[in-house]
């Protein structure tokens, strides 16, 4: 007996599908699916990929399913510095670096920063994070984020919602689980989660350091058609001024780039 059955059941539960629904999506009988979950039948590699596709399991999760069934992982996990990753690396650097002077960053599935630009570095420094660090690390130090983010109640509540969505989509990860626990224990975040207020079309994050107040909203970019675990998990976040004051603060630098 292998560990594939519990792994399949975990993903099916995450997607809130019955055995019948998943069986219909995969074109197999509910009886066979039940046998796969209980270990009375062993899946083929192709069946695992079919189940992974029907469950929308990310590549990293599909590797885990394959290994649980006794197969070798099929989907590569490459370092961004590898030669064959040059196009992805160059695209990431171009997007992040050319977004300056506005803050831009790229990070992996554990929110570990793989690239930050000149606009993001000074903004993240008070939080004690830079390239190679996790953006989630400040959450493990109570009160740190609230000291630099003016609307931490709303931002923290939004971040908790975002992390929960990532866990539902990609499965639990220790870094995300710890961050979620810290946010759930933060009374300021809990207060923000319980409040319903009129907001702008996009919720800003308002950073404050001394007399400096900067408001940003962000966009999130991913690579479509990724066939490598590292590429699929790579995300690029670009921040844009959310008010006239922030735009004016960065306007002089923006003008020198044009």
TrEMBL record:
Residues 8-62 form the HTH cro/C1-type domain. GO terms for molecular function: DNA binding. It holds the Pfam family HTH_3. It comes from Jannaschia pohangensis. Transmembrane segments: none annotated. This is Transcriptional regulator, contains XRE-family HTH domain. It comes from the Bacteria. InterPro entries: Cro/C1-type_HTH, Lambda_DNA-bd_dom_sf, MLTR_LBD.
């Amino acid at each position: 007996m292998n560990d594939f059955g519990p792994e399949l059941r975990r993903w099916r539960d995450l997607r809130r599908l019955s055995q019948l629904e998943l069986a219909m999506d995969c074109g197999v009988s509910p009886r066979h699916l039940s046998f796969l979950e209980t270990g009375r039948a062993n899946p083929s590699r192709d069946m695992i990929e079919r189940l992974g596709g029907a469950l929308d399991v990310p590549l990293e999760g599909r590797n885990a399913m394959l290994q649980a069934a006794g197969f070798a992982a099929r989907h590569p996990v490459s370092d961004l510095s590898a030669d064959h990753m040059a196009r992805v690396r160059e695209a990431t650097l171009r997007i992040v670096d050319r977004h300056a002077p506005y803050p831009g960053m790229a990070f992996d599935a554990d929110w570990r920063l793989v690239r930050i630009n000149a606009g993001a570095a000074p903004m993240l420094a008070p939080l004690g994070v830079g390239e190679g660090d996790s953006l989630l690390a400040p959450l493990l130090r109570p009160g740190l984020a609230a000291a630099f983010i003016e609307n931490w109640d709303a931002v923290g509540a939004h971040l908790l919602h975002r992390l929960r969505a990532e866990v539902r989509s990609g499965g639990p990860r220790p870094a995300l689980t710890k961050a979620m626990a810290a946010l759930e224990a933060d009374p300021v975040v809990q207060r923000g989660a319980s409040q319903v207020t009129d907001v702008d079309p996009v919720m800003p994050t308002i950073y404050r350091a001394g007399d400096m107040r900067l408001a940003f909203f962000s966009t999130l970019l991913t690579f479509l058609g990724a066939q490598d675990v590292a590429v699929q998990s790579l995300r690029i976040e670009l921040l844009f001024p959310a008010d006239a004051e922030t735009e004016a603060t960065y306007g002089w630098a923006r003008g020198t780039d044009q």
